[in-house]
Amino acid sequence: MTKLANVLIGLLLLCVACKNSEEKVTPNGFKFQVIKAGDGVKPKPGQLLIFEYIMKDSKDSVWQDTYENGFPGVFPIQDSSTIATEIGALQMFRMLSKADSVTLTRPAKEFFKDVLGGPMPPQVDSSRNITINIKVVDILDQQKFPAFQAELYAKRKGFQKAKDAKQIEKYLADKKITAQQDTSGIRYVIHTNNGGQKPTPTSCVEVSYEGKFLKDEKTFDKNPKMTFSLNQVIPGWKQSIPMLGVGDSATFYIPSHLAYGPQGYPGAIPPNAILIFDVKLFGTGETFDPETKTCK
């Protein structure tokens, strides 16, 4: 079957789904489309609605995709006394059931107000529409959520590790970089090796560094000189910096599970981001002195 035939079949199925969709309206007039109906059992107060979602704008820029990055959304169902003051999206969640698939599209300003519950940030293009596609994966009592979360984390951690390894391997191949690999999955290139004293995973270190995203090589943080304990940093640094001796420099390619993981660092690091760090080690000591901000 040709690629064109596959595309046409996909479009046909999408059109059929759209024709069979059902528009629903919340008590405050918020409209959404049910593309596929689930079991019809709505959540009760005190339960948690677990959902995957893909959010993108009208220029096909994906803002968030929980299937690929991060964990599902979780919405706690409140008692009925809060319904009157809830925004449209929150009222919508009360109307969903397990395996429901729904979609909605709003102009950016309305989307932030009625779906995300806040003002539109000034950097967002107000001329764009934003679409979110939601699938309810489960409805749980709160006491069952920790076990669900642990199981899902274990599954996705293995998937993400394999995905990160492939992305790092491709990046290195495309850039024609020859890098070594340690047992944790960190890839690295040692630029200088002067035989100086090496820190332990619990030492204090003084370094310069620049941090970039593997995805687009944009710098998210840099510092010409910083002192800290390796007990206070991401696992990737705790494992990689002890490879260096004083005076050495290297580039480290840190997979996301050894960086900020599926939660990311709000406002700075997106979920499941692979990071590149250029690091030089200036000094090391047993402990960090908070008064002088030096290693002792």
Could you describe the largest sheet, including whether it forms a barrel? 7 strands, antiparallel
What is the rounded Rg? 24 Å
Strand/helix succession = HEEEEEHEHEHEEEEHEEEE
Class derived from helix and strand content: alpha+beta
Oligomeric state, counting identical vs distinct chains:
single chain
CATH topology of the largest domain: Chitinase A, domain 3
Number of domains: 2
InterPro entries: PPIase_dom_sf, PPIase_FKBP_dom
Catalytic activity: [protein]-peptidylproline (omega=180) = [protein]-peptidylproline (omega=0)
Enzyme class: isomerase
Keywords: Isomerase, Rotamase
Provide a short characterization of the protein structure.
23% of the residues lie in helices and 33% in strands. The chain has two domains: 126 residues, Chitinase A, domain 3; 121 residues, Chitinase A, domain 3, CATH 3.10.50.40. The protein is built from five helices and 15 strands.
Give a description of the structure.
The chain is of the alpha+beta class and 296 residues long. The protein folds into 2 domains: 20-145, Chitinase A, domain 3 (Roll), CATH 3.10.50; 175-295, Chitinase A, domain 3 (Roll). The protein has 5 helices and 15 strands. The chain has helices at residues 3-19, 88-94, 108-116, 145-174, 235-240; strands at 22-25, 31-36, 47-57, 62-65, 73-76, 101-107, 129-141, 180-181, 187-192, 204-213, 219-229, 249-254, 275-285, 288-289, 294-295. Strands 1, 2, 3, 4, 5, 6 and 7 form a 7-stranded antiparallel beta sheet that branches. Strands 8-9-12-13-10-11 form a 6-stranded antiparallel beta sheet. The chain has a two-stranded antiparallel ribbon with strand order 14-15. The N and C termini lie far apart (68 Å).
